[in-house]
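The records we work with from here on pair a chain with its fold. These numbers are not coordinates but entries in a learned vocabulary of local backbone shapes. To see the layout at work, look at the sequence and tokens printed below.
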Amino acid sequence: MRPRRQSQRGGHFAEPHAKAFLSRPSPLTARSMEYISTRGSAPALDFEGATLAGLASDGGLYVPREWPRFSQQEIADMAGLPYAQLAAKVMAPFVAGSLSPERLLELTTQAYGRFAHEAVTPLRQLDEQQWVLELFHGPTLAFKDVALQLLGLLFEEFLARTDRNLTIVGATSGDTGSAAIDAVAGRDKVDIFMLHPRGRVSDVQRRQMTTVLAPNVHNIAIEGSFDDAQAMVKRMFNDRAMTDRFAIGAVNSINWARLMAQVVYYFAAGLQLGAPHRAVAFSVPTGNFGDVFAGYVAAKMGLPVAKLIVATNVNDILHRALSSGDYSQGTVTPTAAPSMDIQVSSNFERLLFDLNGRDGAALAEQMAGFEATRAMQLTNAQREGASALFQSARADADEMARAIRWAWESCGELIDPHTACGLHAARTAGIEARTPVVTLATAHPAKFPEAVERSTGHRPSLPARVGDLFDREERLFELPGDYDAVADYVAGHATPKA
């Protein structure tokens, strides 16, 4: 395994602050957390089991059996905690029974020690109401690092308790792949196979994946869209010929542990802007619905969230679903925001499950209908339940460009095209002036230099820590958009279970 740099910031476990933090365990951690499938028939698992499984055996997604909830006082007591300690506090109820609070804090300290900014996810103010939450200070310059740096450590932690080898199979529209590869490259007992749609990710996104030459890393470029790649991944989880031989695991946001880690930065931003005594709205550039669902979880845990604004580009299945109840798959249109070029949002299933009374059998029937016809209508309960917290907006190419230009000319901030979709939605949402609106800045603008330069006349440069990216050797494998070809490749290069 490659060496891991320890955090150089404060917060070591022997320090008084950390000792005090650990001496006040939340009552929420007193019992183990159990995870159930959204489709109702898979066995319930503990956190360790759900993390290693990824997708449930009935095709559903794992969610906690019940949402833990913090009191106002417990949330107020989190103010001022360093990010690693806040993360351990927020995540403690979800890992109960699988990790001790002390071990969780060790893992969060290690995970967030690799970030380039002391605050990990710093807030920047744009004007009187608009803020951006910078989630791109990790090693691959995208928000996925916040979750995947921890997930890599969790895989290693849990696999060390067994004789198993894990075969990670993932699909990426650009950012998940590089973040996941960075998190697990060179780690013991893990092979990773990452599928991306050939020619539909940026050069920076591709190179951040394909220049990692560790022997356990396999980059696969397929013909087709991200949705095609994601469908192949989900099919492999239900392919007995593969699952009997290999322990298939997930790093996409279908893995609950990823979403769990993303909940933390909603608390971090909310606390800085006055929580629990002040509600905050969040605008989230959205493709697979994982990042915005983490905001929903934060609200269920007691964080005062005024509104979750779901921002899409022209691939607007989620905007149509939330505004009119029409969840129907369209044709993927390539845009300057490729991580949002998605027409099937896997994590939306988690929300539909929660809003429909957690009826797994009913949701299984609803999703079977969608998978057969690629279309469905939300139930009245789902539409009405969503409208209480969610609203949505769609940004076309011109609106995206105008948002990039406004942030630069009016605020001196360079933002990437995904963040621009979120900012457009935030500025047009009609949120009451006294309520802060935080747009999640999901990627560093240098990952999309051409789009930023077209809008501002200024070309963002890569941070020094990745400045040699275009000088590095690439390695990838090109395959047709055919499941059997991908499955054969994985079977030929993966390590069997044990």
About this structure: Residues 1-29 have pLDDT under 50 and may be disordered. DSSP finds 20 helices and 15 strands in the chain. The longest helix spans residues 256-272. Residues 123-138+257-456 form a domain with the Rossmann fold fold (CATH 3.40.50.1100).
